[in-house]
Write a structure and sequence with these properties.
Elements lengths: L12 E4 L9 H10 L5 E6 L11 H10 L5 E6 L4 H10 L3 E5 L5 H13 L3 E6 L6 H4 L7 E5 L15 H8 L7 E5 L7 H6 L4 E4 L1 H4 L6 H9 L2
Parallel strand pairs: 1-8, 2-3, 3-4, 4-5, 5-6, 6-7, 7-8
């Protein structure tokens, strides 16, 4: 099993969001960005209900897995009913599934985390910018990753909401050596220092990477990583 969450060093990981890749060249885009040093690939799944956009489903995950059998696939479920997507994405080759705290009651969320684990995947809990950090913190004993949204989800290319870093700090003070804090939304080289200092060790970037010229993408990722 591919598992980036058991590394005790908690090194900063770069997770390009393929939402901003060229969908007509997805296999080539993903392969190239991994060869340039991406640690994992982030798949933003939107259902047009929880967020005002439709993006990708299990078939995209399956295609990326087929093209890159060894890459870690981090699937972010921005959907109203995450439970119905767990098995399809697991069967499509996902390594990790994150769902939103806003759409499930605590008891249901714990059952969902257990189901994800039973299928051999790691599990994450996400919170949107207005959501109190306690809605993620209550799963500190169960989840592998805590995702702090730094934009209101739905579209790439939005401006970073710096106030969410307080929530990232709170989570980073509580996670163990085998849990991670991820941030997603508006991440760029010029705000990555503050993001890393807040304790985020998985940095999702979409347009900051894929809007750059292909020859510049390695440098962008290195700068986000702090190299």
């Amino acid at each position: 099993m591919r598992n980036l969450f058991s590394h005790p060093a908690r090194l900063p990981l770069i997770a390009p969001s393929i939402l901003s890749a060229d969908f007509a060249k997805m296999g080539d885009e993903c392969r190239a960005i991994v060869e340039m040093g991406a640690d994992l690939l982030h798949l933003d799944v939107m259902d047009g209900h929880f967020v005002p956009n439709l993006t990708m489903g299990p078939d995209m995950c399956k295609a990326v897995r087929r093209a890159l059998p060894d890459v870690f696939l981090d699937v972010h479920l921005m959907v109203e009913n995450p439970e119905k997507f767990v098995r399809p994405f697991a069967e499509a080759g996902a390594d990790h599934l994150t769902f939103h705290a806003e759409v499930v009651e605590p008891a249901q969320a714990r059952l969902l985390i257990a189901k994800i684990h039973e299928l051999g995947l790691t599990a994450g809990v996400a919170i949107n910018p207005p959501t109190p950090v306690d809605q993620a913190m209550q799963y500190m004993d169960a989840a592998d990753l805590f995702l702090v949204m730094s934009v209101n989800p739905g579209f790439s290319g939005q401006s970073f909401i710096a106030e969410v870093l307080d929530k990232a700090r709170a989570l980073s003070e509580e996670v163990t050596a085998v849990q991670r804090v991820e941030i997603d939304g508006g991440v760029k080289a010029d705000n990555a220092i503050a993001i890393r200092e807040a304790g985020c060790d998985v940095l999702v970037a979409a347009s900051a990477i894929f809007a750059a010229a292909p020859a510049a993408r390695r440098d962008v990722m290195n700068r986000i990583r702090g190299k």
